[in-house]
Design a protein that fits this description.
It comes from Aquirufa novilacunae. The protein is mainly α and 47 residues long. The protein contains two helices and no strands.
């Protein structure tokens, strides 16, 4: 049996992996939310 390479599937697999890595990088680039005023948030819900 001859060995053939599934080029289309190989490209798709690499694209999926690269998209996942890119999505993780985008999420990590976002700054974390700091100094949240919990009491002000609770007061806004009480209205």
């Amino acid at each position: 049996m001859a060995v053939t390479r599934l080029k289309r599937k190989d490209r798709r697999n690499k694209a999926v992996a690269n998209n996942k890595v890119a999505a993780i990088k985008i999420l990590k680039a976002r700054p974390t939310i700091k100094l949240v005023d919990v009491e002000a948030i609770k007061a806004s819900f009480a209205k």
